[in-house]
């Protein structure tokens, strides 16, 4: 039997990945830039054994159906082919983040699975190689291999598309992100479906790709200069442009809810009142507020005037992927 276990933290894109140029390899249309966070993570164990008669997948203790298992099976096949081992597997994944609610559970989940497979099959992958493997499970998972600021280089082939850490002199340790949990339910339009509909039909899409390339440069320059306001401005702007592409798709759709608009308006009003904060959103209704750690308490208390404490979660910069010890059954 081959066993492995890993923990990976979620990452939130400041400059978004939205659209693929290769569906099979998951090659993105543009580079993206993220911050790995400590508040949400996934722990995954995998066991390969000649005694198993099929692949099984448990999520949060519940045996998953064929549709959910198929995505995991596809990834297991990639790892098995790389290792030259063709045994069935049991995967047990614990999400410390609401699944499919726009909180990047697929990023931490597939990164953790990649790490568990690397450990179980003794693939001995470098971080870059592990990032490439994770990418083929879920694009944003390639960024969760690393802590702090991370850039996913789009590349033009399997070999050249992977994430790399961004040197920042640990400036990310001065930052915080407050999650405003508007809705932790499963999304009506899954990210993959919405992304492809946008690429295929949105009249704004080409402009989005060109704009994203410029936004990456602005964000990296802000990180180099430790310029919080420059990073916040480009983060918020990039988010709004990404979501605009969905409204121009056919048929149009949005991940925003009334609560999302309330949260975005609140952040903008706080900023006009002199508080240093900016928002971003991924493919879901939840809003994330970027701020500085020294100001997070004041901003949190101001948000509590409009949102109950159970809807607010504070996160700080998180670590890269970690190997864990498997519990031994007695």
From TrEMBL:
Domain Diphosphomevalonate decarboxylase-like N-terminal: 8-163
Keyword RNA-binding found: no
Pfam family, one: MVD-like_N
Keywords: ATP-binding, Lipid biosynthesis, Lipid metabolism, Lyase, Nucleotide-binding
Signal sequence coordinates: none
Class of this enzyme: lyase
Keyword match Membrane: no
Limits of the Mvd1 C-terminal domain: 179-313
Annotated family: Belongs to the diphosphomevalonate decarboxylase family.
PANTHER family, alphabetized: DIPHOSPHOMEVALONATE DECARBOXYLASE
Protein name per the record: diphosphomevalonate decarboxylase
Gene: mvaD
């Amino acid at each position: 039997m081959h066993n492995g276990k890993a923990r990976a933290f979620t990452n939130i894109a400041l400059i978004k990945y939205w659209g693929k140029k290769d569906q099979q390899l998951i090659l993105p249309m543009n580079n993206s830039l993220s911050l790995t966070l400590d508040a949400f993570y996934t722990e995954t164990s995998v066991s390969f054994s000649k005694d198993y008669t099929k692949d099984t997948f448990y999520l949060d203790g519940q045996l998953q159906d064929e549709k959910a298992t198929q995505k995991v099976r596809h990834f297991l096949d990639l790892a098995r082919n790389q290792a030259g081992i063709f045994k069935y597997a049991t995967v047990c994944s614990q999400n410390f983040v609401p699944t499919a609610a726009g909180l990047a559970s697929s990023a931490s989940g597939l990164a953790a699975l990649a790490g568990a497979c690397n450990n179980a099959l003794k693939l001995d992958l470098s971080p870059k190689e592990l990032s490439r493997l994770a990418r083929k499970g879920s694009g944003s998972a390639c960024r969760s291999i690393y802590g702090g600021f991370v850039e996913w280089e789009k590349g033009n082939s399997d070999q050249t598309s992977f994430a790399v850490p961004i040197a920042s002199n640990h400036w990310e340790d001065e930052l915080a992100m407050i999650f405003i949990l508007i809705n932790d339910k499963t999304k009506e339009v899954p990210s993959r479906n919405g992304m492809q509909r946008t690429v295929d039909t949105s009249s704004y899409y080409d402009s989005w790709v060109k704009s994203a390339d410029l936004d990456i440069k602005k964000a990296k320059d802000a990180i180099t200069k430790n310029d919080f306001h420059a990073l916040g401005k480009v983060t918020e702007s990039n988010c709004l442009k990404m979501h605009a592409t969905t409204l121009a798709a056919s048929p149009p759709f949005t991940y925003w809810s009334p609560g999302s608009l309330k949260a975005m308006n609140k952040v903008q009003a706080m900023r006009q009142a002199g508080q240093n904060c900016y928002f971003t959103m991924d493919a879901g209704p939840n809003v994330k507020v970027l701020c500085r750690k020294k100001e997070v308490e004041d901003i949190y208390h101001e948000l509590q005037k409009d949102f109950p404490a159970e809807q607010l979660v504070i996160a700080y910069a998180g670590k890269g992927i970690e190997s864990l010890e498997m519990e031994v059954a007695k």
